[in-house]
Amino acid sequence: MTTIWSGLVIGALYSLVAIGYNTVLLASGVFNFAHGQLIMLATYASFLGSVTFHLPWPLTVLFATIAVAVVAIVEERVAIRPLLARRDIHAALITTVGASTVMSGLAEVTAGSDPKQLAIPISNDPLTILGGVIAPMDLLLIIATLAIGLGIHFWSRRSLLGIASLAVAENRDAASVRGIDTKLLGVGAFAVAGGIAGATGLLVGAHTYAIPSLGNSLALFGFVAIAIGGAGSQLGGLLGGFITGIIFALSARYIGSDYPQIVVFGVFLAVLLTRPRGIFGRAMERVV
Amino acid sequence: MSTRPLSRIFLAASAVCALFLTACGGSTELDSNKASSAGKDSPFIYYVSVSVTGPVAAFTDAEIGGFQLAVDKVNEQGGINGRKVELVVQNDGNDPTTAVTLLQKYLASGKTPDAVYAGSSSAVALSLLPVLASRKIISLSAPNSKAALDHPDKYPYGFATTVASAESGPFFAKEAQAKGFKKVAMLYADSATGQGSFAAYQEAMKEAGIPLVSATYKETSLDMTPQLQKLQAEKPDALILNGYGAPTLYVFKSRAQLGWDLPTYADTLASSFPLAKNLPPESLKNVMVQVNKPSLADSPHPDGLQAFIDTVKNGDHKAQFPTYGVSPYAVGWDNVMLARAAATQAGTSDGDKVKELLESGKFQKPSGDLLGNGKDASAIDYCYSPQTHFPCPTSETFEFVPPPTTDANGMYVVTAGS
Amino acid sequence: MLEISELTAAYGDLRVLWDVSLSVRTGTSTIVLGRNGAGKTSLLNAIAGLPPAAAAGRIVFDGEDITGEAPHRRIRRGIGYVQENKQIFRQRTVEENLLIGSVTLAGWRRGTPARRAALDRAYARFPVLAERRKALAGGLSGGQQQMLAIAQALMSDPKLLILDEPSAGLAPTIVKDVFALIGELKREGLSILLVEQVVEAAITVADHIVVIDNGRVAAEGPVKQFDDASVIREIYLGRSGTPVAGA
Question: Which family would the database say this protein is a member of (chain A) (predicted)?
């Protein structure tokens, strides 16, 4: 069970990346490869809040939420908007990779490559639950990820704004001639994705520390998570992340530590070949 | 838009140029080799290939500080064999291709180094050594990978000046025998460095007759619980850990979470990370780290060390001192001093003569000039021979200590009670 | 209602419309005819704010210059645009499609009174959509999809309805239904700008005809000037650029 918990914790991290990818993908049709870096920056913002400024945790969360949302908006303005104006979504994919490199580079230059420990609000003595050991912060991370993933899934299916964003993802031009402000929705999606990353920075950083390489560690498996779950499906991304994490942990534990990546990518390929839209994905053929 | 084809052509052209540079540089200026090394009035060229930009830039800056101080000192004392030393620093960006291109260009320009510091990484060294071999140029440098580089047949002029990290294997094996471990586990990074470290331990444990079980992790891993559980199931008596930075923290966090407090030994790489600063003491129960004994604050230090530290702290490259301590400066300094000792004792910087001296066992280590290997350089034995171009460890080279903190000079301090 | 004067429009450097002028007066309908590739859809897109972008000339709607405005602003001013090929949101349900059409109405909640009323009107006009409100739009028949596309454009309560080949790909009986609907909307006071290939059906709802060829207005005039269908046929068959009547 400890292995399962471990897989769920890692899976929660991948799910958070997948949620960020999907939020932006659904509203603006752009695959924001830099989302892993936004999570990385969130851990630094949470480090600044909790350690440097000695803020109580609610203020740390608020500070990180705003800070990362602002970074995401700047990314949209600088790296995405000029290309969307030229209707060049493929180039936008490349510029998000560029934005990703810039963010991790800046973090490394300003904060150094050594990990930084966050101040966490509760005791992190391990708990034994269902016969497995897990740190309290990690348990909170899993719960928060589930709540955010389910919340945003139902919100995007039920609310008018959510439905409008699904419409933009399906057909940007058609949505704009239905009266939807696609630019505003695009910026909004970046802000929301950044805000979610920021808000979870404290929980993520409690597990991973603040470290510049975090974005790269997360980016790839977040991608696997949405490929398994289905691009454009928030529920699929959420479950895809947890599935990826559990497969990873179980294969590291029982097959051999050299294999988890191979097994995960094997599952990834199998899903791509048999269900190209992901296990939970409904058609998103116009996107990506 | 219209500039695009042009820039493409330019790109293609420069790629072709880069390809040919290698070939051209190698073939043209053969005779200038002898011309420049023979001249008594020409300077002794100390050629340094390092990464001035990129992730190791700050560390390199400190090393360069050491080179510069040593070159100034040597020139003050009359140079090498009567020739003034000229320090040439090339920025290879830690990229083997760049390093080779720069060296070829330099050689093609008609100049020949008298001694070379061949890169901050084993990969760069590996790319430079064949070129240096073909030009019979001595390199004295500090690469890590003995397995890849210690081949005097292939690289007859390449010598290492620091003890290879692979020597940690036999050192641990002795500890394991002394403690009576029946079975040992190792967790290491799935990278060239990690595999190198594992190979060293594996060989030493095999020789000692102690079974070694292992697991790897990717550098991008964010949790080590499954790997540790897998090793725990093997019921080892001790754990060896290779890694640096965040992955090592994840290991100790998972280890504490699993309540697994078996004796754990961090290799030299893992121990260079400030574990004690980043983890609560309860996570570091029964943890020992392997350190270079000269780096311990209370080891006997060379007489000149304190004065050197004071000079560094007031010098051009002082900015890196608070981060890295004295060690990278000492590496730069020692390599220049070794180059001087070798060329002076051989009476020339001719590659074959210097090589012959170093391999002969008659090379006198310049103990008084060296700063990075403890008092009288007792932590290193330049045991070069025609079979090995790597120095040997001594009883003063390594030590296991509880995770230390660092003092203002970057020296390890072991706090009591842990 | 809509005044277009000397509009030149281009995709980047590629010009597709030259000096196009036309107008739609309140409560009337204008039909744009022309061969495939003549620039009809480009004209409608330029009016709605999609590419091609205006390079010169003006588009005035309801007395306001909207030439450089974003599409959603033009829609909010009262333009409804039914694009060609039934551009509905196939992965959303019928009701979600209608709700998407209602985003221009005030408020962001689904259940505002204005929004509910607009939904009720749509279902009253299109009972078949009411029956299938929970169905995925992509699963509707071609005729139902066209009805949904029109219903969706009507949700924002437009003053001008622009339709691009509403008959394309539909069975003749359904084409008849579509044009009956357009006639009904016109009688209700909606201004209409229509691109159509099926000339005979289009003429039944037309007040004014504009013929486009090679991106320019080739002929223009009240529908009665085009009584002789051979004139139109001539334009379809070629002799491009020949002014036929009025122009």
Answer: Belongs to the binding-protein-dependent transport system permease family. LivHM subfamily.
